[in-house]
Amino acid sequence: MCGIVGYIGKASAVPVLVEGLKKLEYRGYDSAGLAVLENSHVEIIKTKGKMKVLEEKINGSLNGCRIGIGHTRWATHGRPSDINSHPHKDCSGTIAVVHNGIIENYQSLKEWLQEIGHRFVSETDTEVLPHLIEEFYNKTNDLLKAIKMTIAKIEGSYAVVVLSRDYPGEIFAARKDSPLIVGLGDGENFFASDIPAILNHTRRIYILDDGDIARISETEVDVYDSNGNKKVKEETYVEWDAEAAEKGGYDHFMLKEIHEQPEAVRKTLSGRIDAFTGKVNLKEISLTKEYLEGIRNIAIVACGTASYAGLVGKYAIEKLTRIPVMWDIASEFRYRDPLVDEKTLMIVISQSGETADTLAALREAKKKGSRVLAITNVVGSSISREADEVLYTLAGPEIAVASTKAYVTQLIAMYLLAYDIACKLGKITEGEVVQGVYALTKLSEQIKEVLKCEASIKEWAQEISRWEDVYFLGRGIDYNVAQEGQLKLKEISYIHAEALAAGEMKHGTIALIEEGTPVVALATQDFLFDKMLSNIQEVQARGARVTALTFEGNTEMEKSAERVIYIPKTLPITAPVLSVVPLQLLAYYAAVARGSDVDMPRNLAKSVTVE
Ligand code: M6R
Q1: 305-320 pLDDT, tens per residue?
Q2: Reduced to 3 states, what is the DSSP secondary structure of residue 473?
Q3: 493: Cβ below 6 Å to ligand 1?
Q4: 491 in ligand 1 pocket by Cβ < 6 Å?
Q5: Alpha carbon distances (Å) from 121 to 83, 85, 90, 357, 408
Q6: Most buried pick, 48, 93, 271, 276, via CB within 10 A?
């Protein structure tokens, strides 16, 4: 997804912008560009392609500039091209703009601007911004006013940063529904869409709110609300380390993040289990017994991997609390007039906390009166700020587009919640709580055990990498883990993969099984084990080569499957935290074997901030 950096200070702006944009590469992008002020004119260099292409174009030039804005673009309106890349400028070439988000009414604005003489060169929605600002600036001779007037005209989402020849000592910005922060330096200040972009320079930030307009100079920062009143912003100090966002010796962020899972699970549990009672204690949320007794249902909404964590959460909550849980993909939720109201507890799950569809679903549920609890990894994210309650996953920054450690910590958060609710409502016995919590506390060490199978998974992945179709089978929550496994494989190795509830296979998809077709079968649910054995035999009889994943001790599986991967014994309900790990490694090594760009797979973005 698009990234923004802005800089004003004593240093040479171009290296600061380039370095910042590189820190945002993980978000996914297809073009990049920057604008600086040089000798009283706006100089823009931009290109389709990766940062190294931009650096080649810059070729060490523009070194004396102390002010500039930069952007990485992930195309939404208009294909990736030099001309569609940001920054965009007005007719006079004196105003440059970078923008994240979507201007929904850009067509009508563009027509109006063209009618009154503005000349457009790109296919983007963004280009209306510099022209609107130009139009209003020509009338007011005041850039801040012109930006305010522009904001009043546009519909949609934006984080927008503006550089103008007439304001050589200032950069302006505004945001709505797209993240933007101010970095507070010493004799220098920054704008950025994400914290890692500026972390090498400062840890002090302001998080801009929806409707804020900000102005930075070398030494000053002013923030105004949507009515133009100056705001006093609360400074946030970023605790986590830039190091945490580096690869730390691994070939890819994804592999590093897979190996960080024991620690991420441990951190997400820490402080949330009462040492004396052995029960869950979620101090940060206030779901009282009285409130929980009054709800009729729970709704879980998310996208992609987070939605698959939500499916496991649905299973866990229903099983432990007997409260009905509905589950939706966020992009569908608000268009189906969902049955949620003030008697619904809505749970949204999002690693980034910025996913546009999840945020929209949150707002829809709030509009209908539901209380919203967010499970997210990013403090200060839009979702964390708009939800009524937040349960943070403490996975640390997840850089690889393919989500791994965020997923397992989302599972942990769902289990904590399920046990907490069940306990408060008296739906499970003390013994069951203690047993569940004990299982949770063992998971971190057990993941380390699972990671020991890395070398054999790598070999298996070599085989899989030669195929174009892979099927994942499972029953119950094994099916939900199968869904996550197929998504992982697809998104980074580009191998077509499909997950099926194992009993559903014979209702159609089995027609695709032929000699050698790879099938991955999950069988961790004891009460469904025999059923899985039958399903494995069904596909094997049609030529499939089955790799099964089950608990240690289930050696009977070796009679059915060609290869068996064992995971340590845990409760059936907590098995997904362990069974997903071999699937993550499979996807990773298959992608490596196929030479894919593992951390930045084609067409994908880390944080999908448009609908
Ligand atoms: O930041 P979020 O958790 O809201 O993101 C949701 C999905 O976009 C994300 O999980 C996506 O499916 C990942 N690429 C999966 O690896």
Answers
A1: 999 999 999 999 999 9
A2: strand
A3: no
A4: yes
A5: 7, 11, 10, 30, 46
A6: 48
Residue 1 has pLDDT above 70, yes or no: no
Cα–Cα distance measured from residue 504 to residue 430, given in angstroms and rounded to the nearest whole number: 37
Residues 418 and 391 sit within 8 Å (Cβ to Cβ)? no
Mapping DSSP onto H, E and C, the string for 156-178 reads EEEEEEEEECCCCCCEEEEEECC
For residue 450, with 0-12 CB atoms within 10 Å meaning exposed, 13-18 middle and 19 or more buried, which class applies? Answer: buried
The answer to whether 152 and 213 have CB atoms below 8 angstroms apart is no
Report the number of secondary-structure helices (H) and strands (E) in the chain. 18, 24
Report which protein residue has its CA nearest ligand 1's atom 9.
304
Strand 389-392 relative to strand 371-376: parallel, antiparallel, unpaired? Answer: parallel
Rounded Cα distance between 462 and 591, Å, is 9
Q: Does the annotation count 303 as an active-site position?
A: no
Verify whether ligand 1 is closer than 6 Å to residue 351 (CB atom): yes
How big is the CA angle at 322 (ends 374 and 393), to the nearest 5 degrees? 25
- Domains, the chain, ordered by start: 3-246 (3.60.20.10), 256-443 (3.40.50.10490), 452-593 (3.40.50.10490)
Q: How far apart are CA 427 and CA 433, in angstroms?
A: 10
Q: Which of 183, 581, 563, 239 is nearest to 379 (CA)?
A: 239
The contacts of residue 120 (CB under 8 Å, 6+ apart) are 110, 113, 114, 127, 131
Which residue puts its alpha carbon closest to atom 10 of ligand 1?
A: 305
Select from 201, 259, 240 the least CA-distant residue to 396.
240
Average pLDDT (496-505) is 95
126 lines ligand 1 (CB under 6 A): no
Answer yes or no: 319 catalytic: no
CB 558 within 8 A of CB 430: no
Q: Which residues pair with 67 in a beta bridge?
A: 8
pTM, two decimals, is 0.79
Catalytic residue among 2, 65, 303, 423: 2
513-to-469, 479, 490, 544, 590 alpha-carbon distances in Å: 10, 18, 18, 6, 20
The span from the CA of 176 to the CA of 212, in Å, is: 8
Whether 410 lines ligand 1, by a CB cut-off of 6 Å, is no
The lowest-confidence range among 7-21, 204-218, 270-284, 501-515 is 270-284
Give nearest CA residue, ligand 1 atom 16: 402
Specify the residue with its C-alpha closest to ligand 1, atom 12. Answer: 304
Q: What is the mean pLDDT of the chain?
A: 94
Q: How far is the CA of 306 from the centre of ligand 1 (A)?
A: 6
Pairing of strands 3-8, 189-192: antiparallel
Give me the residues paired with residue 561 across strands. Answer: none
* pLDDT of amino acid 226: 84
350 lines ligand 1 (CB under 6 A): yes
**Is residue 91 over pLDDT 90?**
yes
Show the beta-strand stretches assigned E in 193-285: 204-207, 213-216, 221-224, 236-237
Dihedral, CA of residue 139, residue 143, residue 144 and residue 149, to nearest 10? 40
The pLDDT score that the predictor gives to residue 283 is 86
- Give residue 498's pLDDT band: very low, low, confident or very high (50, 70, 90): very high
